[in-house]
Design goal:
- The protein has 259 residues and is an alpha/beta fold.
- The chain is built from 8 helices and 7 strands.
- Strands 3-2-1-4-5-6-7 form a 7-stranded parallel sheet, sandwiched between helices.
- Helix 3 (74-86) runs parallel beside helix 4.
- It starts with 11 loop residues before the first strand and ends with a helix.
- Mean pLDDT is 94; it is low at 1-9.
Length: 259
C-alpha cells in the first residue's frame, strides 16, 4: 500500500543511470506516484531526454543531469542540480552500475577501482551530500540497487560483486546511523535483461529456469523501489526481486551456465 502522506512535498529524487533500461522504469514509476525526478546519465543524453519526455507527457516533472560517477565531484554536482531544479532533495536511487567481467585471475587494479568508485564510493558520497543538504525536520529515503548474487555468490564478476557487498553493508550501517531523518533500503534484482555476453536464447533459458518459471521485469524492479520509497516504517531492508533465482545455487554466473 502506498502511504499517500509520503507523496506530498517530496522534493526531488535523484535516479542514477535513469536514462534507460531499469533506470528508466524506476523514473517513470516514481513520477507516477508524485515524485519529481532528476534523471542522471553519463553519456546517454538522447535516452535521458526521452525518459524526461515520457514523464512530462504523463504530467510529471523531470530534469536531466550529466555526470561521470567515476569522479567523486559528481555527487555534489547531482545534489546541487536537483536542488536548483526542484528545491530540497528527498530521495536517491543508486541504480547506475559498472558491470564488467573479471575473476581472481583477470582482476586488475583498474577494474577493481572502476567498480568500487561507481558502484560504491560515489553512491555513499551522494547519500552524504543529500543528508547534509536536508532542512531541519526533513525526511529522505534511499534505495540501493544490489543483486541477487549477494545471496548466491560465485567467482564471476568479482569486482562487481565485491562492490555490491559494500553497498549491502552500507544499507545496514547507514539505515542505523542516519535514522530518523533518512531511511536506507535496497532492492536485489535477479537476471532481468539480456547482458552483453548473452544470446536471446540464453536469456530465455535463464529466466524460465527460475523457481517461478519466469524472470523479473524492469517494471517489477520499479514497483519494489516505489514501495520502499513510500514505506515509512521500513528501513535497513533488502527486497529480492529475482523470481527465486538465488535459490538455484549456481557455481558460475548465470550467463556461463545457460549459453
Amino acid at each position: 500500500m502506498i502511504h499517500l502522506r509520503w507523496l506530498v512535498n517530496q522534493g526531488a529524487v535523484i535516479v542514477t543511470g535513469g536514462s534507460k533500461r531499469i533506470g528508466r522504469e524506476i523514473c517513470i514509476h516514481l513520477s507516477k506516484i508524485g515524485f519529481k525526478i532528476l534523471i542522471h546519465h553519463r553519456n546517454s543524453a538522447t535516452d535521458a531526454e526521452e525518459t524526461a519526455r515520457i514523464i512530462r507527457s504523463n504530467g510529471g516533472l523531470a530534469e536531466i543531469c550529466q555526470a561521470d560517477l567515476s569522479e567523486s565531484s559528481s555527487a555534489k554536482k547531482l545534489v546541487q542540480s536537483a536542488i536548483k531544479n526542484f528545491g530540497e532533495v528527498s530521495g536517491i536511487i543508486n541504480n547506475a552500475s559498472v558491470f564488467i567481467h573479471d575473476d581472481i585471475s583477470s582482476l586488475s587494479s583498474d577494474s577493481w577501482d572502476n567498480h568500487m568508485n561507481v558502484n560504491a564510493k560515489v553512491p555513499i558520497l551522494l547519500i552524504r551530500e543529500m543528508y547534509e543538504s536536508l532542512n531541519d525536520g526533513s525526511n529522505a529515503s534511499v534505495v540501493n540497487i544490489l543483486d541477487q548474487k549477494l545471496s548466491n555468490p560465485n567467482p564471476d564478476y568479482l569486482s562487481y560483486t565485491a562492490s555490491k557487498y559494500v553497498m549491502l553493508g552500507l544499507t545496514d550501517s547507514l539505515s542505523r546511523g542516519l535514522a530518523p531523518n533518512v531511511r536506507i533500503n535496497a532492492v536485489a534484482p535477479g537476471h532481468t535483461l539480456v547482458s552483453d555476453l548473452q544470446t536471446n536464447e540464453g536469456f530465455s533459458k535463464a529466466q524460465s529456469g527460475s523457481p517461478l518459471g519466469f524472470g523479473p521485469s524492469p517494471e517489477d524492479i520499479a514497483e519494489a523501489v516505489c514501495y520502499l520509497m513510500t514505506a515509512r516504517a521500513v528501513t535497513g531492508q533488502v527486497i529480492y526481486v529475482d523470481s527465486g533465482e538465488r535459490f538455484l545455487s549456481r557455481s558460475r554466473d548465470v550467463v556461463f551456465e545457460t549459453e
